[in-house]
Amino acid sequence: MSGNHGQSLEKALAIVDAAADAGCQGLKIQTSTPDMLTLDSREPDFIVRGANDDWEGQSLYELYTTNHTPFEWHAPIFARAAERGMVGFSSPFSVEAIDFLESLNCPAYKIASFENNWPDLIRRAARTGKPVIISTGMADLADLERMVRIVREEEGNEQLVLLKCTSTYPAQPHNTNLQTIPHLRAMFGCQVGLSDHTMGTGVSVAATVLGATVIEKHLTIRRADGGPDSSFSMEPDEMQRLVQECRQAQQALGTVFYGPTEAEKKSLGFRRSIYVVEDLAPGDVLTSDNIRVIRPGHGLAPHYLPEVLGRPVRQAIRRGTALTWEVL
């Protein structure tokens, strides 16, 4: 949801319902206050430049003020998510935010890319013993090794998911590098997914094919409503299509399999096979004039054609009869 609620609890709950109607399995909010994140300052370091047109020229404090979800909304949002069959959880932006979320029995924690270089936050989330999902935007290999070590070795938490993420808003497909997904899984032996800021469904579907088991995507009711994240968020009908296409892609992966599947067996009859195309008498020799490779597939397979040509038949055969070994 991020800041797409536009500071309206009614709209926030509508986004929860839209996510459920689209078939999402989880709904994530953000737990922060502007003071948890930055200083109320308009010094040059604190002004947003070149990140996103909707953010341009704002101070960080102003951006995080419009983006934050009031703490008193968390309980009703989580309750609505549970009523709609989804897991409601959050991205905390301070250790104190995790303490607050623990009072609500938040079932999982997502560490945002911009926070993945803060060991204390990762450590506190891992210490809960609950699943920890970490976006890997901007993280180099040393950063990755450090965050995984904190979760697993220091805090003994094996419930770790790493999300491939490109921290641009929106992100472009050519800059997404999805081949990193199987590499991350092999390197750290954990579940891997995608935090996707591209437009459309194609990148998330491709990530699913590469083994992503978590897809995170921003959702809004209407992009035209505006807001800090609206320009790179999906509308409900797009989210529904994303869910459907990712699940179809996951189902389509299947296993390594050759030969007809159970479902294909009914189609075997529509393949080509060898048929008698002229009436034959006992002793007649098979030639390219009296047998052909045609549909349906109830006769000998086409690759037997050279083997049967020139052989006599032992009985009369009517035109349109599938050729079998028994008549030769």
UniProtKB/TrEMBL annotation:
PROSITE patterns: AFP_LIKE. Signal peptide: none annotated. SUPFAM superfamilies: AFP III-like domain, Aldolase. Its EC number is 2.5.1.97. Residues 273-328 form the AFP-like domain. CDD domains: SAF_NeuB_like. This is Pseudaminic acid synthase. It comes from Hymenobacter cellulosilyticus.
